[in-house]
Amino acid sequence: MRLLHVLLSYVAFALAFAFLLFHPKVRHGVWARLGAHPRGWPGLRAGLPRVWVHGASAGDVLALLPTVRVLRGLRPGLQVVATTITSSGRSMLERHVDAIDAHTYLPYDLPGAVRRTLDAIHPDMIVLEYAELGMEAVWRIEVQDFPAFILVDDKGHDFFFDTCGICVAEK
Asked: Which residues does 5 contact at the CB level (< 8 Å), separation at least 6?
């Protein structure tokens, strides 16, 4: 079943790639979306706890910033890597460099792109504004067995206090 999913992912990506290259909201950052990230990512230091936060667009990024500040208060030295899907989200991340140590685009839902991104970020935890990671990322999270939290579900329930705050305090 996994092999079928992987094959279909690459076929679907090949069919959609031209659209992705020209769509104004998602055409930037193709190399980062394919998982091409710098070695020794600027702004990140080895040996410190690291969290990957994701917000799809500018509004989601803004909604994550208070959570990021609380996480940093709970875990001094915490490094935060943020991803987004849209160029407006990326622009918002660039405006808030005080809260974010590094940022990039969310990888395409392809095994190689997701693996390379996870290897580059090497998170201890993932915090999502919404559950919008693709199946490949979800599979990798399960296989690598690190915590992932969704702050708000599709019905607007806020999970931060009950899950994320407790887990970060205990970790």
From this structure: 135, 136
